[in-house]
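Researcher: Quick sanity check before group meeting.
Model: Go ahead. Protein one:
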Amino acid sequence: MNLTVDQSSPENLELIKEKISNATETFVEEKYLIVAQEISKKIELNLTAKASLKSLAEYPFREFPPEPQIDPKTKKRKQN
């Protein structure tokens, strides 16, 4: 199983968490568990970033009213 952070999906995250759990139960070397947990955290962050980007991309464009024109001499609004 070769996972990269680019291949982030909820299914892959669950799969790697299961593998980490199994490795912990079978007393796999600690350095390998640390690397696996780091990858798991990166995948979680990537999934969060993808969800944030998707919500930003779907956010509707808002129209703003034009800014009021202010006369620099009188500091009052210009009459249109």
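Researcher: Fine. The other one?
Model: Protein two, sequence then structure:
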Amino acid sequence: MQDYSLPLTLVFGLTFFLIQRSEIKMRGCVTRFLLLVIGGAVAWFSYTRDALGQAISAFIVAGFINLVFWALIGRYNPPKSSDEIRVLKMDDE
């Protein structure tokens, strides 16, 4: 049996990161979309390859890694709202 822990951890980690760093107004929509698409794909993948235990452990490890990232970096640098972002043009100083 192959070890799928690392790829599953990367997929879960990227999913958690995208949810964490999405704009506050769109976080619910992003969460639902990612849970449907990536959650469904991972569930199908782990079911067909009999890797449910590896998927659960990868989910826990990715959650812990993203929690550490949030505690060290994300809490102090929250994502900005699209209303706050200002695009500089050629004539702006």
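Researcher: One line on it for the slide.
Model: The mean pLDDT is 88.
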